[in-house]
Design brief:
single chain, about 280 residues, alpha/beta, eight-stranded parallel barrel, 10 helices, 8 strands
Length: about 280
């Protein structure tokens, strides 16, 4: 199914993100994660390309195909264009089509050292090519603004350009303060962004993880979260529980606000995803 069709029903769709196993870890690990997520009846599952410019489209498309063929899931493959030529993108498209992938999240991606040639400067440049190839295309959104853009209004204008280029829905970057999401949604609607926006939440499991996400994504650290981290940072079990509860509160708040969808960055931890899904399903 094309992911754009999961929005607009009686329930708010809940989706998940996973990432391919790194190095020599077997695909069986990814299969186990997808199998567990399938039990949660996800609206869709997205598969990352990778962080830091080391994308592996072979593994991404393989997992997406496995989720579709083995577990009958709506799967979405991430595809980055930074450093890619038209020939590179054509080869990626051919591989995705060969594996029956219908949904693609178009991303700029991180700079790749030594790869200066780039026929697609931004995700908005990649989107029309993917739409012409017949994919259902999503794109990224940033409730607190992209790290490279200091003006949120300008960032929303870039989002409108992605919609105008053919993006059919948006998945947001993670955030820890829902107030940013509500303000961002108001700005998007004022800017005539009409496609569905699903908001991404990542449950924190450690103080180091939160610090890393703040650095990588530019996410703000609200005072309630600071207090949680201070209270539980030396108690791993307590912090895990607190992280799950905090994510649940965010997801329930988003649902009560009437967002189009919610997306869980599951970190390949289906046990965490299961606890959260069980807690928030009654509110969706």
């Amino acid at each position: 199914m094309q992911i754009v069709n999961v929005f607009g029903g009686e329930r708010i769709p809940l989706s998940y993100e996973i990432f391919p196993p790194k190095g020599e870890l077997p695909m069986e690990e990814a299969r186990n994660v997808v199998a567990e997520l399938a039990k949660l009846d996800p609206a869709f599952v997205s598969v990352t390309y990778s962080a830091g410019g080391g994308g592996n489209n072979e593994r991404t498309s393989e997992i997406a195909q496995m989720g579709q063929d083995t577990f009958n899931l709506n799967m979405m493959a991430h595809l980055t264009c930074m450093g890619a030529t038209r020939e590179d993108i054509a080869a990626s498209i051919a591989l995705l089509k060969e594996r029956g992938v219908q949904n693609v999240l178009a991303l700029r991606g991180d700079p790749i050292p030594g790869k200066d040639v780039c026929d697609f400067k931004y995700a908005k440049d990649l989107i029309p090519t993917l739409r012409e190839a017949g994919f259902c295309v999503g794109a990224a959104a940033y409730p607190e603004g992209h790290a490279a853009c200091l003006d949120l209004d300008e960032d929303v204008r870039h989002l409108k350009e992605k919609q105008d280029a053919g993006a059919q829905f948006f998945v947001t970057q993670l955030f820890f303060d829902n107030r940013f999401a509500y303000k961002f949604l108001d700005k998007c609607r004022a800017a005539r962004i009409r496609v569905p926006i699903t908001f991404g939440i990542m449950p924190f499991m450690s103080k180091a993880q939160v610090s890393r996400m703040i650095f990588m994504c530019g996410a703000s650290l609200p005072s309630p979260l600071v207090k949680v981290l201070a209270r539980w940072e030396h108690d791993p079990d307590g912090l895990r529980k607190a992280g799950i509860e905090y994510a649940c509160q965010q997801l329930i708040g988003l649902a009560e606000h009437g967002v189009d969808g919610v997306h869980l960055y599951s970190m390949n931890k289906p046990d965490v995803a299961r606890e959260i899904a069980t807690a928030v399903r009654p509110y969706l």
